[in-house]
Specification:
Layout (H helix, E strand, L loop, with lengths): L2 E5 L8 H14 L4 E5 L5 H5 L11 H5 L5 H4 L1 E2 L5 E4 L8 H6 L7 H7 L7 E5 L6 H9 L2 E7 L8 H14 L5 E8 L6 H14 L12 H5 L7 H4 L4 H20 L1
Parallel strand pairs: 1-5, 1-6, 2-4, 2-5, 6-7
Antiparallel strand pairs: 3-4
Helix pairs in contact: 1-12, 6-7
The structure holds adenosine-5'-diphosphate and magnesium ion (MG).
The site of adenosine-5'-diphosphate has 17 residues, from helix 1 and helix 10.
């Protein structure tokens, strides 16, 4: 049975997609079977794996709005153990289309349950909003992984994020848990980054991963080559950091079982 995890933070540009692409690629390389679902209309996870959105027959849009079976939409990436459910620009209109559908908050949940026996982990890349696509994601998953950027306003919006999680727990998904908090874009040369790390650790108590993702230019370049950083530049600091995060993630998972 898979564990299903949403990469969630309603702020844009905090490292959700970068974490999704690179953490899932590292965990797949370590031998776990992974499916990544890209539910962000921007489709950066889809292109980050080198998939050309314009040539696809189906996308997650068809699953949510047209009730196409999720299994039909899964495509393999060129990396072993790693499949993807691609996004499409049509998703941008899905929020409005969903509004008139019955059970609009749990369209994704029912679909994901049909593939749970095929993967070790399913990662859902959420859009930067609190709309119906995000609610569908939070209703469908077992836990949320929250990336937080090491910048001045890091904790701004976090109470709203926690409120959303509480609301979804209460109304749609009582077992929803926090998988962990990943600090991203850390710049060791600034006091600010160091201060943010302390603040976030104090707020989330034991939930913050010891591995911190540094600001690394290779991480920013890799998507334009359609590659996770461990294939684009395996020796880069970014590749090293995400491999370490994957190891920590799996170690903590084993402790739970
Ligand atoms: P989100 O999905 O939360 O909007 P992204 O993962 O797309 O955020 O990151 C926003 C931008 O920052 C992207 O251009 C990405 O390449 C870049 N980026 C993300 N993490 C890092 C990092 N650790 N070092 C350098 N650039 C990064
Ligand atoms: Mg993104």
């Amino acid at each position: 049975m898979s564990k299903v995890i949403a990469i969630f933070n309603q702020k844009g540009g905090v490292g959700k997609t970068t974490t999704n692409v690179n953490l899932s690629a590292c965990i797949a390389q370590m031998g776990k079977k992974i499916c990544v679902i890209d539910i962000d209309p921007q489709g950066n996870t889809t292109s980050g794996f080198g998939i050309n959105k314009s040539t696809l027959e189906y996308s997650i849009y068809d699953v949510i709005v047209n009730e196409i079976a999720l299994e039909k939409v899964i495509i393999p990436t060129e990396y072993s153990n790693l499949d993807i459910v691609p996004s499409s620009v049509q998703l941008a209109g899905a929020e409005i289309e969903l509004a008139s559908i019955e059970n609009r908050e749990i369209q994704l949940k029912e679909s994901i349950n049909t593939i749970r026996d095929k993967y070790d982990y399913v990662f859902v890349d959420c859009p930067p909003s609190l709309g119906l696509l995000t609610i569908n994601s939070l209703a469908a998953v077992d836990s949320v992984l929250i990336p937080i950027q090491c910048e001045y306003y890091a904790l701004e919006g976090v109470s709203q994020l926690m409120n959303t999680i509480q609301l979804v727990k209460k109304n749609l998904n009582p077992n929803l848990e926090i998988q962990g908090v990943v600090l991203s874009m850390f710049d060791g040369r600034t006091n600010l980054s160091i201060q943010v790390v302390d603040e976030v650790k104090a707020y989330f108590k034991g939930k913050v991963y010891a591995t911190i993702i540094p600001r690394n230019v290779r991480l920013a370049e890799a998507p334009s080559y359609g590659q996770p950083v461990i294939y684009y530049d395996e020796k880069s600091k970014g590749a090293e950091a995400y491999r370490e995060l994957a190891e920590e993630f799996l170690d903590l998972e084993e402790d739970v079982i």
